[in-house]
Amino acid sequence: MRSILIKSLPLSLLQEKGLSHFYICDIRSNQAFASAHLQGSFHTKDERRVIESLEQSVEGGGGKYP
Fold it and tell me: So which domain of life are we looking at (predicted)?
């Protein structure tokens, strides 16, 4: 299994850099997520689901979130 590197960057910086591939995992509360959803983000508070989703993204070369 490959190592997973996690960094926290503002969405505006990702857009500014023109990155074609990035992963957004939103771990805010359900209420905060519902009120200001980040398009294309994956939302969960469960650590195992975050790890599984990252692993699937890396193994599959990107794609849909579980």
Answer: Bacteria
Check: CB of residue 4 under 8 Å from CB of residue 22: no
> d(Cα 42, Cα 64) in Å, to the nearest integer?
9
Where do the H-state alpha helices sit in the chain?
11-17, 30-35, 47-59
Summarize pLDDT for 4-62 with one digit per residue, the tens.
555 566 767 767 777 666 677 777 788 877 777 666 677 777 888 888 887 887 776 55
What gap in Å lies between CA 38 and CA 1, rounded to an integer? 29
Q: Rounded to a whole number, what is the distance in angstroms from the first to the last CA of the chain?
A: 19
